[in-house]
Design a protein that fits this description.
- The protein is mainly alpha-helical.
- The protein has a domain of 76 residues: Orthogonal Bundle (Arc Repressor Mutant, subunit A), CATH 1.10.10.10.
- It contains five helices and two strands, in the order H-H-H-E-E-H-H.
- It has a two-stranded antiparallel ribbon with strand order 1-2.
- A hairpin with a 3-residue loop joins strand 1 and strand 2.
- Helix 1 crosses helix 3 and helix 2 packs across helix 3.
Length: 128
């Protein structure tokens, strides 16, 4: 989304959506550094605060992380997540969802074992 005359200026949500799309398209990959906030603000024709808010939104989702003095980077799911990245609400939600899935799988495993015991080793139903 480039700035154009007469068009409404993008919001922080618009900028975040554009960056998300760049990740989905593969134009930005794990570990890639996002443009400097000032550079992006100039590109979009918006204030620095709007870009910072977009980066904050993406950070809260767990998609990017920032390092003071270094920049903002796309999260690499193959790398261990540090404490700051874990604080993102999207990361917490995902971790809770995965935990619930693990519990469901464990319970299904137990049910399968009970069914196998009922059916018996020859695969026939027990006689009544």
């Amino acid at each position: 989304m480039e700035k154009s005359t007469g068009a409404p200026r993008p919001t922080a949500k618009d900028i975040a959506a554009d960056i998300r799309q760049e990740v989905v398209n593969g134009n930005l990959g794990p570990g890639d550094q996002l443009p400097a906030a000032r550079e992006l603000a100039k590109k979009y024709g918006v204030t620095l605060v709007k870009v910072q808010n977009a980066y904050r939104e993406l950070g809260d989702e767990g998609l990017v992380f920032s390092e003071v003095g270094r920049g903002t980077f796309v999260v690499d799911p193959a790398q261990p997540v540090d404490g700051q990245q874990r604080d993102g609400s999207a990361f917490v939600s995902l971790a809770m969802e995965i935990s619930a899935m693990h519990e469901t799988i464990r319970l299904l495993g137990e049910r399968l074992e009970r069914l196998e015991q009922i059916v018996g080793s020859d695969g026939s139903a027990p006689s009544r």
